[in-house]
Amino acid sequence: MTGETRRIDVALAAGGAGLLVLPWYHIRSGFWEFDWLGAFLSDDRLWPAVAQLGQGRWQLLPVLALWLVALALRLRQPSAARGKAFVVLGLAGLAWLAFEGMAIGLRGWAIPGADRLIALAGQPAWGAGAILALAMFAALFAFGLAERGVLKGDAFVLGAITALVLLVIAFVGYPLYAMFLSAFQDFRGNFTLDGVSQNIADPAIWRLDCLVGGRCGVAWRTLFLALCTASGSTLMGLVFALAATRTNTRFKAGLRLLTVLPIITPPFVIGLALIMIMGRAGFVTQGIEAITGWHLGRWIYGLPGIWLAQVLSFTPISFLVLIGVVQGVSPSMEEASQTLRSDRWRTFTKVSLPLMAPGLANAFLIGFIESMADFGNPLILGGNGGVLSTDIFFAVVGAQHNPARAAILALILLCFTLSAFLAQRFWLSGRNFSTVSGKGDGGSHARLPRGLEIAVLTLAGVWSAFTLFLYGMIFFGSFVKVWGLDNTLTLAHYHAAFGFSLAGGFTGVAWNSFWTTMGIAILAAPLTAFVGLLTAWLIVRQRFPGKALFEFAIMLSFAIPGTVIGISYVSAFNLPPLQMTGTAMILIMCFVFRNMPVGVRGGIAAMSQIDGSLDEASLMLGGSSARTLRKVILPLLRPAILAALVYSFVRAITSISAVIFLVSAQYNMATAYIVGLVENGEYGVAIAYSSVLIVVMMVVIGGFQLLVGERRIGRRDARGPATPRPVAPIKEEIAT
Amino acid sequence: MSAREKRGAVVFDDIRKDYGSFTAIPQLNLSVEPGELVTLLGPSGCGKTTTLRMLAGLETPTSGRILIGGTDVSRLPPNRRDVAMVFQSYALFPHMSVAANVAYGLEAGGLGRRAARAQAEKGLDLVGLSAMGDRLPAELSGGQQQRVAVARALVLEPQVLLLDEPLSNLDARLRRKVRTEIRELQQRLGFTAVYVTHDQDEALAVSDRVVVMREGRIEQAGTPRELYEAPASEFIADFIGESNIVDCTVEKVGDGLAEIRLGGQRITVPTRSTATGPARLSVRANAISLSGPAAGQDGASGRVRSAAYLGDHVEYEIESDLGQLFAIDHANATPYAVGSDLALTFRAAGLALLP
Lengths: 736, 355
Known about the structure:
Helix content of chain A: 55-70%
Number of strands of chain B: 20
Oligomer: heterodimer
Number of strands of chain A: 6
């Protein structure tokens, strides 16, 4: 019983601190600077809630009253009735805080006419005190449920679910809602349908002129590009998967490297390399022009270039999806076909390929979503013909500054990706033939038909060579003075970016953003891993009402393109009650909730392999669910935890699409800084910086492989040829 | 035309199979008569499945020849050999209906779609599944899937049907029923069959001839009765029906019979050798009669170490003059208590001299 009382005491004490001691409202210079301590008594903006009442902010009175009621309830004996009271009280507190936070802005009521009812002073965004009060109400809600005996009275599980649901609402649901709302607002924040009516039917988005020789709208172009990219990357992924598993190539170690490349490559680097080769100053372009006398010009800018860059970028992801699919086809199916009078070709077309079909569709949809969400390559290669993600960006940051248009475009993009996600989720689920069931025959896979084998090896070879060539170009280009014009070797770009001296310290231009990036990535990684694995544990091990919906909502956020996240965070967190733009916090939260689904998926995969009887054994031996998680599950999950940590770290460094909306002068991220360099035409420094990032992440991933990889050494490879072992984190990403 | 060249005859001629530096099968010679059901039996890793897969064409022998119906098929791919195979996992194509599965091989063989479907219908009829043609394999029970796998192989009317542990995914009760069905079908249609299993009961029940393999070699080949009654080695004696291996003395030999002394008992058993003196003897668990110590008979004496009551019989571990013995007693409904002293006598029918 003492545990139950103690946790309620802790919650009430935290709430008390929030209401009576800590500054209730947001502090511009930042809470953690603690420079508010000096001015605490003199500056009324720093006062706690109870003192804010005296400033005419009567909206805080109900909060204080609820806290006092909770104190009174605390003195009564624990019972189901008291539990119910806590539940109601917690909900009321959360609801009131959410309402007053949204309804009362900086200049008082945001609801027109409400000030006639009761006049209230305006208020800034929530600060430390308000956040603690929110946490208290959430905790009281969860503990109240526990006291009523819900989920066998497990306060830890209830608390975790409550916290996660609130966080997902705040950092996924609320931003999307705010973005949706901003489509209906003019720049003063008043409701209007102008933006929607102008943009929704905008011919620049929807026209179909390309069918008759003109230019199509951006929505159609994005869709067309995504379909082409998905086809291309699926085909190439299949080619590589077949080459790796069904032929006797000696380059399998190389294929393994190929699987690492996409996670360590900032998304615009491929585009950059393509420009260096095939742009106007690219030597391929110049060579062709010199030989033929044609004028190629800027052909690489636009859809063909973006397509090429995207297929190059996403083929490895598709390969990782499909290698599992190709290996998953039970060898005995193919052997059975062969003993049934069928040659290799018929076996491949009638048995192997149909069995792979659901996997191919899955890879296609992943490619589709990736292409839609891609921001880096279109930004670099888009030229005049952008796609939705870049148009969203330019609608916000460009000269036109049109948030309503950005919101509309983001909604269109969201519709596309969500449709693909839903198709994948509902249409493909249950269509998987490739699970090897029960006792196998342990045979070996059939070899490919000869003609196909030759074609596969040729394509894979050419494509690998091209990819390696591109990466070589990036490194080479970073040492060249002016690409295409002056090919003398120089370290000037590295010096400009990463120069340092004993006297001047870090003088290079890149250091600032480099350290910010590292710091934010290091902060975000453990949070991401923690939230992801906790969610996975709830999904795999706990049963609670609404679990399916909970899981679905978490996974859904993976299908939200980064650009949409970025624009929605800007719309939501620029104003009270949650004001975070320009801080490091908004970047960290963005990474946590953007990368969380990966941690969830990895955690689910890892946890499903741990026998549930271990948990039950721990519970039977008297461990609580928190103790079981800490002492039994987490130690067994160490590889999954490491994978989630490394993956979220690397993703925080390479991502650009959401980040570019959220960076500020104080907190600039490496990728955003590099894109800025590219826009200024400073290609040399940009690729030097990119190369350094790639090397840093190679070191991180290599170290991670050494740490985790040992577990796998000694496991007997199946009879056939060895297959490349993909890096753990990306395997989870693609297990969509 | 010799028997070895008839349709359905199988000959392994000096077959060797290496996996890298590991030799799975050093040298194998075996022939199967047309219309015969031969079982390859042995513990896991003995090379029985490799042998079957070489016959199917799924593995290529390192050296030697395989003849089917007098034709050398050693280098032919599976689809050009006149065999069909039932897989352990059945390997039914999950994306095709049952009828399409059965018709698959027929269509591959050049039969038109309609004719193939008609044949497939007959094949399903044969295994009693004619109503199930439109279903997907996943919609059938394990036993039904197994029968589809058999039908899919049989409609091709192969010279040889290969079965790779076809019953291992079925539960014990169903296993007995299906093995009888397979045997009946084989005898009715008269095809040659090579059957791989590690279950000796199954092997004894279905086979014309059992080939026991061990470490890539044939340990003994013969009818089920020969293997059981005249095991050629301790391994066979132990593998085919559990045996106690004990020391005895051969006192007199003549006319294929030997008079042996086993403990205090003299018994006459068949023999293939003429040597006298110490020998090894296989004693079946049910060839030991147990009685109270007062009986004062000639055999051995022992003490019950453990007893397991199994309804219609009792199993004993007995510490005896001859060593540790495993005995099965069908006669006494009341088990002897652990620690009680017993007198043991041996019945000639369950004894076999080991070479």
